[in-house]
Specification:
The protein is mainly alpha-helical.
Length: 183
């Protein structure tokens, strides 16, 4: 269900920047998935959503898929890992901050290696884009998605609990309630 919501966010809130960069809010939903169900599910859902994006709407092909997956997976898994071991508001904030920094670093490195192949330009040209386009874009996108995570996490989990789609197990671990979907 959260994968579907993340994909809908890609369809509705997707903006192209600089010709080959896309700004979307799917990482917020994927990170909320990782906070609820754990970092492994954040990675799995990141793969599913970015694969759907590849086959249904992407015009950047396999390069875009790799970059999208790296970005979404890094963001959701890092935040999910921190939150897994520190399940509190401060843990969520620390997780999001580390996720913003990690995602920005991973995407800058990925751009150095993948963008020259995708755009057919030299690595030196990509280096020139780092400070003017790629760094600001990645920071802004990650901070925006991180802010959405911190704003939406509580309301989404409360709605899922009220609809009995999410059950609280011992020690704040969540379990998806399949029986409520079937009824």
């Amino acid at each position: 269900m959260l994968c579907a919501l993340a994909f809908i966010c890609v369809l509705v809130f997707r903006f192209e920047v600089g010709g080959f960069l896309t700004f979307d809010v799917k990482d917020a939903i994927l990170t909320i998935t990782a906070l609820i169900y754990g970092p492994v599910w954040g990675a799995v859902c990141s793969f599913v959503v970015t694969f759907l994006e590849l086959i249904m709407i992407s015009d950047t092909g396999i390069y875009g898929f790799i970059m999208n997956f790296l970005s979404s997976m890094t963001f959701s898994v890092v935040a999910g890992l921190v939150y897994k071991y520190r399940r509190s508001m401060s843990g969520a904030i620390v997780g999001v901050v580390i996720a913003v920094l990690s995602t920005t670093a991973v995407m800058l490195l990925a751009n150095l290696f993948i963008t020259p192949l995708f755009m057919g330009v030299s690595r030196a040209e990509v280096v020139k884009m780092l400070s003017t386009l790629l760094l600001p874009f990645n920071i802004i996108k990650a901070v925006f998605n991180g802010s959405l995570v911190l704003i939406l996490y509580k309301p989404i989990t409360q709605v899922l609990r009220k609809t009995k789609l999410l059950m609280v197990k011992n020690n704040h671990k969540y379990k998806f309630n399949f029986s409520s979907v079937l009824l």
